Every structure is written in structure tokens, then in C-alpha cells.
Amino acid sequence: MSAPGLETHAAADRSGEIRAALWMTGAIASFSLMAVAGRELAGHLDTFEIMTYRSLIGLVVVLGLGAATGRLRDIRTRRLPAHLCRNLFHFAGQNLWFYAVGVIPLAQVFALEFTTPIWVALLAPFVLAERLTRTRLIAAGLGFLGILLVARPGLTPVGPGHLAAALAAVCFCGNVLATKSLSGTDRVWTILFWMTLMQAAMGLACALVDGTMTLPDATSLPFVVAVGICGLTAHLCVTSALAAAPALIVAPMDFLRLPLIALVGMALYDEPLEIAVFAGAGLILAGNLMNLRSGGRR
């Protein structure tokens, strides 16, 4: 017979995994809806305008919920330069991502985006003084092979969209490293507030460089709102999933985004289901799991 304490612990683990799965279902839906909304907005707004409206909607939501829950006091920070650094990386990466979803198949965008954790594992030793291990180097090699399978240089044209998606992953890596540093001193609500405020200002400044700012019309407005809401719900769902279960459980769930968005791309935009994209994503997933298992053992 097993000890009651062990049974209770196992039941708690299962409960956490179920909660994590439910939260990741919301995250996958949010990311997928944001990609579709970004594709639909590509012909109406430029990426800077999309980011401006996304951030303004997010700021209104954060302020409204913060006022209702008494969390506005959490927005104070002594690390504004660190917030600025984080948001520069995230703003650049998100603009590149919105550009990519408008010009290349959605499955390729998501597959290339999944290299972000591998870039984090490679660069963390230089930024956060972590150790660069052989496992991390092997994982990076698998990720690089996965990128080659997804993009297939020489066999298919590699355009600006592929480069944008790959660079977006690098920028998201900078965002992750900066967030990891900030999370030691600032709360999630603080990070969300300064993210929406700073990126609204960045988006507005970049959008007005040409002297014009396109307003959403009746056709584009629903997609603008979808981008703004999904950007926040995706962050909330992933954060909640990681709080409910270990990253080793959550990360493979996130990769379910790829087959889903591939089916969405096929259904809405006649994008082909390519075996090479799934094979490349599998190598990237293997590299990410190697890093997670290595970190779990440590």
C-alpha cells in the first residue's frame, strides 16, 4: 500500500497538470486568434499602428482591472531602465512577428518562434551568469537544424518574412531574459503596466514618423480589439499554467499551437500542411526539452 502522503502529493500533481492544461488551452487559443487577427490587419494597418492600438487596449484593461482589484499600487518601480530595455526587445520582436504573420505561412512563423527558449539557453550564461553546458550546445544544434528544415534555404525562397520570424525569436529571447531579471524585484502587474504604457508610446512615435495614423474602420476594428485582448490573455494564461505545473509539463503543451495553427492556415488561407515544418518543429521541441530536463536535474 502507498503512503497517504504520497497519494495526496500525486493527486495534487495531477490537479496542477489539469489546471495547467486548461490554462494552456486558453493560451493556445489566444496566440492563434492573435495570429489570425494580425494576418487580417496586414492590409489595413502597418505593424506600428497595430502595436499602438494593441498596447492602448492593453493599458485600458490593465488600469481598469488594477483599479478594481486594488493593484494599481503595484505599478511603482525603481527599475525603469530595465523595463525600457525589456520593452524595446519586446516591441521590436512583436513588430517583426506581426510582419511575418502577414507574409509567410502561419505554421512557419510559429515554428521559428519556438526557437526562443533555445536562444535563451545560449545567451543566459552571458547575461545572467549561468553556466553554458554541453546539453545547451547540443540543444542549440538541434534548434538550428530545425530552423533549416522549416526555412529550407536553397530549396524554397527564404524571404523577409522568414528572417523577420527568426529575428523576432531572438528579440523575444531578450525580452525573456529581461523579464527574468525584473521578476526578482517587480510584480507581474508592474511589468504589464509598464509594458503597455511604454509600447503604446513607442508604437505611436513610430507610426507617426510618416505624419499619418490610420484609424481602424468597421472592418478592421474587431481584429484590433482581438489583438489587444489576446495579447493580454495569452500572457495571463501562460503565467498561470507555469504557476500550476512545472515548465517541463507546460512547454510540450505549448507546441500544440503548431498543428492547430497549421490547420487554421489551411482552412482560412489555403496554406499547405508541410511535413518539413513539423519535422523541423520536432527538432526544435527536442532541443527545448533537453534544456528543460537538464535544468530540472540541476
TrEMBL record:
EamA domain mapped to chain residues: 20-151, 160-291
Q: How does it sit in the membrane?
A: Multi-pass membrane protein
Indicate the segments annotated as coiled coil, or none if absent: none
Keyword tags: Membrane, Transmembrane, Transmembrane helix
Q: Does the keyword section mention Lipid metabolism?
A: no
Q: Which compartments does it reside in? A: Membrane
InterPro entries tied to this protein: EamA_dom (IPR000620), EmrE-like (IPR037185)
Q: Which family does it belong to?
A: Belongs to the drug/metabolite transporter (DMT) superfamily. 10 TMS drug/metabolite exporter (DME) (TC 2.A.7.3) family.
PANTHER family (alphabetical): ACYL-MALONYL CONDENSING ENZYME-RELATED, SOLUTE CARRIER FAMILY 35 MEMBER G1
Q: What is this protein called?
A: DMT family transporter
Species name: Paralimibaculum aggregatum
